[in-house]
Amino acid sequence: METQSKKQNRPIIMAVAITGLMAITNPSKESYLEHLTWQLKDSACQQQQLSCTTLKNVPPGVSAAMLSSYTRRQNFLLFSIYTTDFYGVQDQTIGLGGFFL
């Protein structure tokens, strides 16, 4: 009897463990800003824009601080939605499990 009840509780325990792991690994706004900074640099350089040279010379911390005031985070505990509107350039990203989608 006891073993059957333990088997029945496994899915619940697994669901709680996965939910806890997702909540713990929900990326912070600082992590997103670092990700966005590198993404913008890569994008500008791939498109061979003149701003590529300028962006490469700006330290990541400065870029992140500048983008912070243009970024909004909606925290849903298990994941977050980040929206950045920077001078007409909009980016919306989902942060989930330590990654950005």
Automatic annotation (TrEMBL):
It holds the Pfam family DUF4359. This is DUF4359 domain-containing protein. It comes from Planktothrix serta PCC 8927.
